[in-house]
């Protein structure tokens, strides 16, 4: 998974904001069974996205 997916999800927030929804704290979530690129991991560390891999999906509580 690469930053392209994150950009696609960010564009989904724009119509919500235009309709008056507060999206200031909204973070997209990317789910992947094969992992993500270092760029997405950096984005997660910066609080821009939530990455969900198989380990998090099935083993974390």
Record keyword descriptors for this entry:
single chain; alpha+beta; two-stranded parallel ribbon; 3 helices; 2 strands
Describe the structure.
The chain has three helices and two strands. It has 61 residues and is an alpha+beta fold. A two-stranded parallel sheet has the order 1-2. Helix 2 links the parallel strand 1 and strand 2. It is elongated, with a radius of gyration of 13 Å. It starts with a helix and ends with a helix.
Shape: elongated
Cα Rg: 13 Å
Question: Uncertain runs with pLDDT below 50, 5 residues or more?
Answer: none
Distance between the termini: 23 Å
Number of beta strands: 2
Strand order of the largest sheet: 1-2
The H-and-E topology, N to C, reads as: HEHEH
What class, by secondary structure content? alpha+beta
| Helical proportion, percent range | 40-55%
Our estimate of the beta-strand percent is 5-15%
Q: Report the sheet with the most strands, covering strand number, pairing sense and barrel closure.
A: 2 strands, parallel
Determine the number of helices (DSSP H or I, runs of at least 4 residues): 3
Question: Average pLDDT across residues?
Answer: 87
Give a short overview.
The protein has helices at residues 3-18, 38-45, 54-59; strands spanning 29-32, 50-53. It is an alpha+beta fold and 61 residues long.
Task: Give a topology summary.
Blueprint: H1 3-18, E1 29-32, H2 38-45, E2 50-53, H3 54-59
Parallel strand pairs: 1-2
């Amino acid at each position: 998974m690469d930053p392209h997916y994150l950009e696609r999800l960010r564009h989904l927030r724009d119509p919500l904001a235009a309709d008056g929804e507060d999206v200031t704290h909204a973070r997209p979530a990317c789910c992947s069974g094969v992992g993500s690129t270092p760029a997405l991991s950096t984005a997660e560390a910066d609080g821009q996205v939530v990455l969900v891999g198989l380990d998090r999906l099935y083993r974390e509580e």
